[in-house]
Write a structure and sequence with these properties.
The protein is an alpha/beta fold and 175 residues long. It is built from 6 helices and 7 strands.
């Protein structure tokens, strides 16, 4: 990977990875972060390489996912089950399809967040309450010096207020 450091950053350019996260209700920030770090380390990368965390819109209110995005200092973007289901992934799951209405959350969300031409770098890995996958932004997008260019407006990361899940995020274009 010419021009890439071991930290998942294009030399002098910043983060070039998108992490997708699926989770069961009640997942903790620590579990999400530990799983993400393990997945990145297995690929020879570290969490500063992550530019965006992505998940199903039904999971935007999970404190563990929102907290992980806040701890990493990256936006949390969400996708509908239909958007996630439209992505061809290497490891679809009937269990996830029954629970989330899509055969993939983590892999599909990572690929959507990386954008057209993005490639799955780390296939899904799981812990008891979470699943994580990592995709690499296409080289042209990584060179653009964009910190992120998610397909949707980010859900603010940080403490999740009690009450219903946040409203669906809206589409956002590249700056």
């Amino acid at each position: 990977m010419s021009g890439m450091s071991g930290h998942g950053r294009e030399a002098g350019r910043g983060p070039v990875l998108a992490a997708g996260v699926g989770a069961r209700a009640g997942v903790t920030e620590g579990e999400v972060l530990a799983l993400l770090r393990a997945a990145l380390e297995a690929a020879g990368r570290r969490d500063p390489a992550v530019a965006v965390l992505a998940t199903a819109e039904t999971k935007a209110g999970e404190a563990g996912i929102a907290g992980a995005a806040a701890r990493l200092g990256v936006p949390l973007v969400t996708y509908t089950a239909a958007e996630l289901a439209a992505v061809d992934v290497p490891h679809p799951s009937r269990t996830v399809l029954g629970a989330a209405g899509t055969p993939s959350v983590a892999e599909a969300a990572a690929l959507l967040a990386a954008g057209p031409g993005g490639a799955l770098l780390v296939p899904k890995s799981a812990s008891p309450r979470a699943t994580v996958a990592v995709a690499r932004f296409p080289a042209a997008r990584a060179r653009s010096r964009l910190r992120t260019a998610p397909a949707r407006t980010p859900v603010p990361a940080g403490p999740v207020p009690p009450g219903p899940a946040p409203a669906r995020t809206r589409k956002a274009g590249l700056p």
